[in-house]
Design goal:
- The chain contains six helices and five strands, in the order ββαααβββααα.
- It has a five-stranded antiparallel β-sheet with strand order 2-1-5-4-3.
- The protein is 39% helix and 22% strand.
- The chain is globular.
- β3 and β4 form a beta hairpin.
- It has 175 residues and is an alpha+beta fold.
- Bound molecules: flavin mononucleotide.
- The site of flavin mononucleotide has 15 residues, from β1, β3 and β5.
- Flavin mononucleotide binds next to β1, β3 and β5.
Length: 175
């Protein structure tokens, strides 16, 4: 019998002083990741480089978040999003992620994207986890268009909550 412990649904505690950074080509294939990225997700550098970034996608993440992410960064606009990722051993971690595009200095064409991630407060995680689980149910029962409507309405309603708006302001601004 295998003695290897499979850890599922356990949260990884992140160091608030360290950033988790990765870069992709224009299609979302990983071209670079820093040491902390490798340490946290548990995949080797060899497994990561060249793989699509959904290698660490968590099934609790609604599709609409990635739809908005790609629609925004493809236009060369920056966007911030709260993301739940899954490590190789099944554990998860929540991060605040800033996505930016990288351009060719001569042609100005987008040649890839950079994501820089840091920890967020438990309060924000609770709000977002609740929102994302609703979006997932809507996606399963009514489809992604309804999920997008719900998300946009939710973001509008957050107008008064400064901390939350800061977190999602780029998605909000986009509309
Ligand atoms: C620079 C960059 C970083 C990304 N980082 C993540 C990430 O940390 N976690 C994640 O699930 N998707 C990330 N994505 C989005 C993935 O490319 C993909 O859209 C997402 O995982 C959904 O995959 P799917 O459409 O195959 O389900 C990133 C994309 C880019 C361009």
């Amino acid at each position: 019998m295998s003695t290897e412990k499979i850890l599922i649904d356990e949260e990884i505690q992140l160091d608030p002083k360290r950033y988790i950074v990765s870069e992709t080509d224009e299609k979302g294939r990983i071209t670079f990741c820093n040491d902390y990225f490798i340490e946290i997700c548990g995949y080797s550098k060899e497994e990561l480089i060249g793989s699509p970034h959904n290698i660490i996608r968590h099934p609790d993440m609604p599709k609409v978040v990635f739809k908005l992410l790609w629609e925004t960064i493809k236009q060369g606009k920056n966007i911030n999003a709260v993301v739940k990722n899954r490590a190789k051993d099944g554990r998860y971690y929540w991060i605040f992620t800033e996505f930016e595009s990288r351009r060719d200095v001569d042609t100005n064409e987008i040649i890839g994207y950079t994501a820089s991630r840091k920890t967020i407060s438990k309060h924000i995680i609770e709000v977002i986890a609740n929102l994302y689980s609703k979006l997932l149910v809507i996606e399963e029962t009514q489809g992604i268009e309804e999920s997008e409507k719900y998300l946009i309405e939710f973001l509008r309603e957050q107008g008064e909550d400064i901390e939350f708006v800061n977190i999602m302001e780029e998605i909000h601004k986009f509309y």
